Amino acid sequence: MLRQILALTFKDVRLLLRDRAALVILFVIPLMFTLVMSTALKGVFEPGTEQRPIALVVVVQDEGVVYLNGEHVVLAQAVVEALQGVSGLDLVVDPDRTPAQAEALVAEGAYPLALIFPRDFSRRVVAGVKDPEATPVVRFVVDPGLPFPVTASVKAAVTAVVTRTVAYGQAPYRVREAFERAAAGLPPAQRQTLAQGLTRTLTAMYDLSEVGGRAEVRVETVVPAAFRREDFPTAVEQNVPAYTVFGMFFIAGVLASSLWKEKQLGTALRLRAAPLPSAALLLGKLLPYYLVNLGQVALMFGVGRMVLGLPLGNSLAGLVLVSLATAAAATGLGLLIATWARTENQIAGLSTLLALVLAAVGGMMVPVFVMPEWMQRLARLSPHFWALQGYQDVIVRGLGVQDVLPEVGVLLGFAAAFYAFALARFRWT
Question: Which CATH number fits domain 54-227: 1.10.150, 3.40.50, 3.40.1000, 3.40.1710?
Answer without folding.
Answer: 3.40.1710
